Amino acid sequence: MSNTLKGILLALILIAALLVLLIVFTNEEPQTEEPGRTGSGGIILPPIEEPDDEEFEDDPVYIYTNGEHTEGVFYRGRLELPVFGATGWAATSTVLRSEASATSDRVTSLSPGDAFVIFDEDDDWWYVILPNEVSGWVEHRRCFINLPDVLPSIVYNISNAESSEFRSSGFDLPGITHNNLYSAYSYNERLERGEFIVPGSYILAQSLAAVQQLALSNGETLIIYEVFRPMATQRAVAASLNKLMDRNDAEYNEFVHRAIADSTWSVGSFISQGRSNHQMGAAVDVTVGIIEEREIVQTGDYSYHRVKYYSRIKEPSPMHELSPRAVLPNRNTAAGSDIGDGIWNMKSYFERLGFRALSSEWWHFNHPPSISAGSTAGVTGNFFTPVIYSIPPVR
Question: What pLDDT, on the 0 to 100 scale, is given for residue 185?
Fold first, then answer.
């Protein structure tokens, strides 16, 4: 083969190769650049979507009634409603400070019974505003909170603020029974109804919330007769019972005297002769009701359960019966076997949550943490709490 032919053949081969390459690149789909990220091996992965902030929020529990949800939500916390907007009181002399710190500047001083509205909480402190619009931080261990503002599902029947039921062996206490012993009822803007004013320690409120949940889970509700009792009332009740016990007093009642004097108990077993745990907002007089109907009510941004109708359980004696009739016997005794399950359920609820029953009064439960806090803070109970400033809570 001549050199000329070899050159022509080589040229044809090169042209054919170029045509093949041209066809391949011409038929390949064009690669467009799209947003994404490169994974292992250079693979194009789907783009990352921006997170929806709402997906990462703690979904609220919406309330549904008859297929329609309300605007509010149940509060998630140790109470039924947040402290925001609740009324509080100084339970002892204390200092309102500029910050949530015992070393911060003093704003003003508070006297026992001074009221305020709670707007925020930071560990052991509340941020509060006084009626004169002065604001600051106060240690809540030195204060009381209005229980209906944060525990509205409980039924409140503060008989001593309406018509006292104190008796002894069924006999009226002079100047006490049927009387209004102190002012503790007002229209409550937060609850949009008239309601009793019921001060108690903050840690008591948290424990009572847990007790109420146990009761509700069993179709029952707490019925509170008294938490805070002013010292003046304590002394008046004790003095009246002592009159009935005093042979030299015109009010002496031999039946009342013998019922207590001939027993293993004393007057002090039924009514403290000095300061009681009620003055420290650390005791509760209570019974239980069987719920017949309850409803969902809204206040501000939150909903809560309210008991509409209930029936009382069978009780060992009338409430505030100051005699051995009110002593709760051992359940394993013949006397104890005659007492219905409702009382024993109630006792179980409270004792499971750290309360201590008072054996001489079936309705009375002490709260040791509140007693300790009140004693340390110097709470005496020498004040009244006739007004509230509660407002609906917001998120």
Answer: 97
Q: Which domains does the chain have, with CATH numbers?
A: 152-185+192-377 (3.30.1380.10)
pLDDT tens digits, residue range 307-342? 999 999 989 999 999 999 999 988 777 666 778 888
State the sign of the Cα–Cα–Cα–Cα dihedral 274, 230, 281, 226: positive
The two most distant CA atoms of the chain are separated, in Å, by 156
Sort strands 68-74 and 302-312 into parallel, antiparallel or unpaired.
Answer: parallel
Region of 57 please: left (phi>0), alpha (psi -120 to 50) or beta.
Answer: beta
Is residue 284 within 8 A of residue 208, CB to CB? The reply is: yes
Q: Tell me the two tokens of residue 212.
A: 């109420």
Assigned token pair, 321:
């019966």
CB-CB contact of 114 with 171 (8 Å): no
Q: Kindly give the parts of the chain with pLDDT less than 50.
A: 5-6, 8-9, 18, 20-69
Q: Kind of pairing, strands 155-156 and 143-146?
A: unpaired
Rounded Cα gap, residues 92 and 197, in angstroms: 18
pLDDT digits (tens, 9 = 90+) for 219-237: 999 999 999 999 999 999 9
| Residue 156 to residue 153: CA distance in whole angstroms | 9
Q: Are strands 62-65 and 68-74 parallel, antiparallel or unpaired?
A: antiparallel
